[in-house]
UniProtKB/TrEMBL annotation:
InterPro entries the UniProt entry points to: Aldolase_TIM, Radical_SAM_PqqE_MftC-like, rSAM, rSAM_sf, rSAM_TatD-assoc
Key words, A-Z: Iron, Iron-sulfur, Metal-binding, S-adenosyl-L-methionine
Pfam families, alphabetized: Radical_SAM
Residues covered by the Radical SAM core domain: 6-205
Protein name: Radical SAM protein
Upper lineage: Bacteria, Bacillati, Bacillota, Clostridia, Eubacteriales
Amino acid sequence: MMTISYEYEGALYVNLTNRCDCACVFCLRHNGHKGSIYADDLWLEHEPTREEALDDLRKRDLPSYRELVFCGFGEPMFRTDDILWLVDRLKEEVPGLPPVRINTNGHANLIQGRDVTADLAGRIDTVSISLNGSTAEEYCAVTQPKDGVQGWEAMLDFTRRATAYVPHVVMTIVDKDKTPEEIQRCRTLAESLGARLRVRAYIPE
Ligand code: SF4
């Protein structure tokens, strides 16, 4: 049994990969977790093919959701081309498809070795990028990216570029152990890139 899509608060979440180039200290993938508060069985025994994911999504009443969200129990942009393919198929097949969001660490261009942001145009309505801190040092301490400070720079660059093609570009931080000054620094940074900051409530396990 594995979960490709699951509902949460009126949205449909799609999980295509366990892979990630970060090792965030708070990540549920550590410590043998296979699920989250959102769903069990999020650890994929194999990555679904794009066709398997499409079959799964076709069984859903897609227009009934407020949003379709590509996230992952990993970094969804490892599957960038498959996400784009899926969105194209769904836009062809489903009248009234809800807005599409990608929750990402912002490393797509680093992972794919090319600038993918133009491909998001007309397909993706929102990208939500985890900011995690207002400096490279803090960011790297929390997310432990494989490529170190290059991961921080790639995330900022991706965000800036995405604002040219995606209507809603949001950076998120979790409101845990953050001073108002730190939150303000994150807000200033997000806005300097053309994005909006969203402060998410901390959900303890
Ligand atoms: S970016 Fe997301 S999936 Fe990757 S380690 Fe961090 S929390 Fe986990």
